[in-house]
Amino acid sequence: MVDPIDGTRAFLNDRPWWAVSIAVVDGERPVAGVVFAPEVGETYAAQAGQGATLDGRPIRAGDASTLEACRMAGDPNMFRHPSWPVPWPEMRVEPRNSTAYRMCLVAAGSFDAAVAPVAKHDWDLAAADLIASEAGAFVGDHHGRTFRYNRPKPVQASLVCAAPGLTPLILDRVRHIRSGN
Question: Which of 27, 45, 122, 177 is spaced 20 to 30 A from 133 at the CA atom?
Answer without folding.
Answer: 177
